Amino acid sequence: QDAVDDGIELVVGALCSGASMGANAILSSYGIPHISPTSSAPGLSDSSAYPGFFRVIASDGMDGEALAALVRGSNSSSPAVLYDSDTSFLANIAEIFVEDYEDGGGSICAELGVAYGETDLSDEAQILTDDSCDSVVMVTYADTAGSMLTELDDDGWSGEMFTSGDVAYEIEANMNDPSDADGSFSSRY
Question: Residue 58: exposed, middle, or buried by beta-carbon count in 10 A (0-12, 13-18, 19+)?
Fold first, then answer.
């Protein structure tokens, strides 16, 4: 409101999605455009919900779409999605993956939300086996994805494994045996 009262005509910022969403409620009502260099929430792409908002970084939603395209182009027909349910941007990516994959005619075997930093994934790995999932898409941080790959290898699971590109760079440091990631695929939008 101070920026509006001072007669500002353009705002560069805020530096996170939540703050940009809040600022837009005030700025857009006065017709003041704003640009964020770091706000990546998919919802900010909705110009009717966030009029006058512009970003210079890609939407997190593109990662979900890239993962869906990667899975569609694979031998997988029944993927599970493992996602960090405590981190909104990861949960958003997982949601967009599911929507895009299902819109393309696919069906999801299981949706497994886990707490941030969860490393005991024996129950989730068992669900993949019990539900006959043929692949898993991990929309998590590297520690959780590394633990999942280790658990799946220990269980002798042979399905395909997918992660986002950011996780692929860090996953080896989060595994007992880096060869557990052999054959996994990573997306990068």
Answer: exposed
